[in-house]
Amino acid sequence: MRAFVKSWVQSLGWHSELTPEQKIRLESWRKLPRPSLSEPFLASRCVVLDVETSGLNLIEDRLISIGAVAVVNGRIALGDSFSVVLQQKTVSERSNILLHGIGGNAQREGQPPADALLSFLEYLGQSPLVAFHVTFDETMIRRALRDFLGFNFKHPWLDLAYLMPALNVALASKNRSLDDWVNTFNIRIDARHDALADALATAQLLQVAQRQAVQRKGLTFASLRDLEKAQRWVSGVS
Questions:
Q1: Which of 3, 54, 139, 215 is the most buried (most CB within 10 A)?
Q2: Secondary structure tally for the chain: helices H, strands E
Q3: Other C-beta atoms within 10 Å of 145: how many?
Q4: Virtual CA dihedral for 18, 113, 71, 232, nearest 10 degrees?
């Protein structure tokens, strides 16, 4: 009977360990209206995201921090940004800390994961997401939301790792990483491997893509995703 109740609760999108207040917050987010991806890009909001983790293993490593900034009507909204460190029961390895700079105390004193993730969802609303190499960020976010909030996060994402080559064919063979692209377009990153700083750099790269694509008829989030998908097909990636 307990197993049935647990399964039923999780099917509603509620983790069995969530407090009543947390359940209300999650349900309120889920009821938010979803914006149309066919609205003009220059009259909409999207959220550019980056994460820091305990490593690169998509199965075993943990989400440590999320950094995000909104692009509203085509402009980076610095006042509409988000950053959080999720409280860790086990501090990541020293080599990992040297990479992202989130020390042991900061990891132990971060926000409880469920509250941190609910705050992220409330900041996000239902705005579509943008990242560079979406697979990693999306997998880590989805795993954390499943583990701590108990639901399957399905959300529209745009991957600049494929959109930029689609818009810059001549540069595609030389530019693979985020560092390659930001150097090509002289984008400043104040603290590489800081989630919020990397999200800001990625947002500036999105603006480059926006300027390059603006002459295309009907610039929307959906049309940019179509370009990304076409580039994935060219690259042999489904």
A1: 54
A2: 10, 5
A3: 24
A4: -100
Mean pLDDT of the chain: 90
pTM recorded for the entire structure: 0.90
For residues 6-36, one letter each, b for 16 or more C-beta atoms within 10 angstroms of the residue's C-beta and e for the rest, the string is eeebbeebbbeebeeebbebbeebeeeeebe
pLDDT band for position 3 (50/70/90)? very low
Mean pLDDT of 17-24: 95
Does residue 123 surpass a pLDDT of 90?
yes
CA 215/CA 93 separation, integer angstroms: 47
Counting beta carbons within 10 angstroms of the beta carbon of residue 91, is it exposed (0 to 12), middle (13 to 18) or buried (19 or more)? Answer: middle
b/e string for 183-192 if b means 16 or more Cβ within 10 A?
A: eeeebebeee
Answer whether residue 56 is part of any domain: yes
The pLDDT of residue 14 is 47
Residue with tokens 């909409």: 44
Domain count, the chain: 1
Q: Report the CATH number at residue 190.
A: 3.30.420.10
The answer to whether 106 touches 97, Cβ cutoff 8 Å, is no
Query: Strand pairing partners for 49?
Result: 68
| Residues spanned by the domain of 97 | 40-235
> Which DSSP category does 177 fall into?
S
**Using alpha carbons only, what angle is made at residue 3 by residues 22 and 10, rounded to the nearest 5 degrees?**
30
